[in-house]
Specification:
- The chain has 82 residues and is α+β, with helices and mostly antiparallel strands.
- The chain has a domain of 47 residues.
- 24% of the residues lie in helices and 22% in strands.
- It is built from 3 helices and 4 strands.
- It has a two-stranded antiparallel sheet with strand order 1-2.
- A hairpin with a 2-residue loop joins strand 1 and strand 2.
- The radius of gyration is 24 Å and the shape is elongated.
- It starts with 5 loop residues before the first strand and ends with a helix.
- The model has no long low-confidence stretch (mean pLDDT 83).
Length: 82
């Protein structure tokens, strides 16, 4: 798709059709970078966005250790000044 590059103050801009943004999953904020000779605009994905879905799709089994279980060590707590 060819787009017209427009003057916007001291910057330049393009009009991206709504259906194109929706198809790419882009909302109000996007990630933009330059790679080689291309400008890449991507949807921003939150770092833990899919964690709950992944856990529900593969729940821990009864014999599987819980992450960070037993990390709190009372001997360490005694060294701290409160």
């Amino acid at each position: 798709m060819n787009v017209l590059i427009r003057d916007i103050g001291n910057s330049k801009g393009i009009i991206i059709p709504s259906h194109t943004l929706k198809e790419a999953g882009i909302g109000k904020v996007a990630d933009m970078r330059v790679k080689d000779d291309c400008i890449i605009v991507k949807a921003v994905k939150h770092p833990r966005a899919d964690w709950l879905d992944e856990i529900q799709n593969d729940p821990p089994t009864n014999h599987e250790a819980v992450f960070m279980d037993g990390v709190e060590d009372s001997s360490i707590l005694e060294e701290w000044e409160w």
